[in-house]
Amino acid sequence: MKAVILAGGLGTRISEESHLRPKPMIEIGGMPILWHIMKHYSTFGVKEFVICLGYKGYMVKEFFANYHLHSSDITIDLQKNEISITNSTTEPWKVTLVETGENTMTGGRIKKIQKYIDETFCFTYGDGLSNVNISSLIQFHNQKKKTVTLTAVQPPGKFGSLLLEDSSVQSFVEKPKGDNSWINGGFCVSETDIFDLIEDDSTILEKQTLSTLAKQNQLNAFKHDGFWQSMDTLRDKNYLESIWASGKIPWKTW
């Protein structure tokens, strides 16, 4: 099974970093968040990837084009102009990098990689980390037999809440998880039928395609109660960095 990763957005809410590189290439623990996502999928046997490029996509291409050199011991014979790999530690991945347009919407990006997909596939966004069990997600999707299954998560609350009785504070809850609401956390599984619901580059996956599937009763929700965190802002990036530095990394399933 292949995993499609949407990695072409502008990342305007984290412009402190994204003016230099595409958001999926922003590093956590010295490696792009895109790499962390791929390592997680690889843990569950998904080792073929189709990456939808857009904004500064050449940087993603350069990363993978030079991956072998960066992750291996090499010997360089300057006189002969030869490079020998002496100890390779590269990943067992097959990565297809597709230019889907800088201004293409999320649905349009999915449409543009149709020719690389011929069976059920995974897809997710290039800016979210989780420890969701991909094998269980795929099994759930196969059992429910609908077009798309998304992973439903409850994001960490941004503010503490008060339990009140009239004007009396009964207790204080520090940042309750999700405020009892569920959101789309990405990490989706889809049948190829989804391509028929995407019109053109302007199609927004969430507002149009997935909404249509929900109305048709063709959209599953796989509830995930474990770790999930998006990287929308610099604050989110710093938070993920602090988790990595702690050594207790919930999304590090490899």
The CATH class, by name, is Alpha Beta
Q: What coarse outline follows from CA principal-axis ratios?
A: globular
What do the pLDDT scores average to?
A: 89
Number of helices: 8
Distance between the amino and carboxyl termini: 19 Å
Biggest sheet overview:
8 strands, mixed
CATH A-level architecture: Alpha-Beta Complex
Low-confidence stretches: none
Order of helices and strands: EHEEHEHHEEEHEEHEEEEEHEEH
Helix/strand class: alpha/beta
CATH topology grouping = Spore Coat Polysaccharide Biosynthesis Protein SpsA, Chain A
The total strand number stands at 16
What is the CATH superfamily? Answer: Spore Coat Polysaccharide Biosynthesis Protein SpsA, Chain A
Strand fraction: 25-35%
Number of domains: 1
| Helicity range | 25-40%
> From the alpha-carbon coordinates, what is the Rg to the nearest angstrom?
20 Å
